[in-house]
Amino acid sequence: MPTLFPLLSLSLLLLSLPSSSAFEYSDALHKSILFFEGQRSGKLPPTQRLQWRGNSGLSDGSSANVDLVGGYYDGGDNVKFGLPMAFTITMLAWSVIEFGDRMAGEKDYAAAAVRWGSDYLLKAATVSPNALYVQVADPNADHRCWERPEDMDTPRNIYKVTNQNPGSDVAAETAAALAAASIVFQHSDPSYSSRLLQTAKKVFDFADRFRGSYSDSLSSVVCPFYCSYSGYQDELLWGAAWLQRASGNATYMSYIKSNGHVLGAEDDDFSFSWDDKRVGTKVLLSKAFLEQKVAGLQLYKVHTDNYICSLVPGSSGFQAQYTPGGLLYRETGSNLQYVTSTAFLLLTYSKYLSSSGGYTNCGSTTVSASTLISLAKKQVDYILGENPAKISYMVGFGGKYPLHVHHRGSSIPSTRALPGHISCNDGFQYLHSSSPNPNVLVGAIVGGPDSSDGFADDRANYQQSEPSTYINAPMVGALAFFAGAATA
Ligand SMILES: *[C@@H]1O[C@H](CO)[C@@H](O)[C@H](O)[C@H]1NC(C)=O
């Protein structure tokens, strides 16, 4: 560029660049948050912007005389799964906590998306003593139908963990979500925030005292859907780390110090997701070491640095897989969940490094905060369209995006367009139709391409074309980072 425009100063050059050469990160941020309105269960508020959705699941919980109305559907079905929902809320809240000051007018919408989830988790944790409700609907029955949530007539069974049938994984993740949400509302709604924090403490205590995996207690309805493959130790530490950050109570720091060994260093495969919380916990705890030099926490920076090095091609410790087009690749199914969570952790860690003057060493290579930002930007830009297929993996963003999203509500004409009841089996014609989805699920990020950057845009290929709340949640923070930087 300088040789082409020798007379222009750098700032003039930047001003003269056509806007199409950079992504509209603020538009992507706006859409990434709007997506959560499409996943809402319960009675929609007057402020609902995504107009093709209607009320659903209005009697959830009534079979046991409890109120479990609200919350989010995880993806393209109509089940409310507690573990991924709680993880989604933790990550949405973390996005607001770290990057809310870069969200401008979107911050209130992001907080509303957190609250839609935290309101539900509060109910699930408090409607009956010594129990946490962790799921609504039998997923096997739900998956045998292709129905709009508004028409749903499949069994809305409810499932709970108790001291007799424990679920420390789902309970500790719920505690993490409530604690993280309490930070989001600390100033804007102090009484709500303190209710969230008090409930988080109780739920964490319940998770820690009655130990076991919900995959054992509720095997047939949570596995294989959201089986806790990583066990519950990772969630206990993650929950304690969030309670420590939200409350500042020394009890949680000593809990972390005496149980931290379970996070593992040698065998961590660095797959931060709704199941495995280890890397996220390491990044979260490295903040206290970097910024406040809390004794005994240096280990977490060392572990986080190992994670960072695993992502940097050419450095010692490199072990990640990238597609030829440059996308981080871990799994056939819903791969973009790992991409968005990694981008978020890179940006969050870059923030902690910047605020403390720290850096990462990978053998003889020094990795600075700005390197982490470029790594994250490459992944975010790939998702938004800078990829071999020249497609945006965010629905409704850019000129070309997935049209056959694996999502019941989006693929069947809305109740406004087609008011009659469409029953379980009658919906399948829409799953199998080659037409684009009639309702655009704006902002949804789908599972994404395969290991050679190929993408089918096929509704039957749920591994590539299904969106989920936990793909989007960390992307909200990553997009805020770049949106804020663009307007700063
Ligand atoms: C810290 O948390 C513990 C466990 O919940 C509680 O017993 C204690 O009172 C708390 N301390 C403060 C200062 O709030």
UniProtKB/TrEMBL annotation:
EC number, UniProt record: 3.2.1.4
Organism of this sequence: Dendrobium nobile
UniProt-listed InterPro entries: 6-hairpin_glycosidase_sf, 6hp_glycosidase-like_sf, Glyco_hydro_9, Glyco_hydro_9_Asp/Glu_AS, Glyco_hydro_9_His_AS
Leader peptide range in chain numbering: 1-22
Protein name: Endoglucanase
PANTHER family (alphabetical): ENDO-1,4-BETA-GLUCANASE
Domain of life: Eukaryota
Family to which this protein belongs: Belongs to the glycosyl hydrolase 9 (cellulase E) family.
Top EC class, one word: hydrolase
GTP-binding is among the record's keywords: no
Pfam families: Glyco_hydro_9
SUPFAM superfamilies noted in UniProt: Six-hairpin glycosidases (SSF48208)
GO annotation terms (biological process): cellulose catabolic process
Keywords tagged on the record: Carbohydrate metabolism, Cellulose degradation, Glycosidase, Hydrolase, Polysaccharide degradation, Signal
Domain Glycoside hydrolase family: 25-479
Molecular function in Gene Ontology: cellulase activity
Recorded catalytic activity of this chain's protein: Endohydrolysis of (1->4)-beta-D-glucosidic linkages in cellulose, lichenin and cereal beta-D-glucans
Catalytic residues in the record: H406, D457, E466
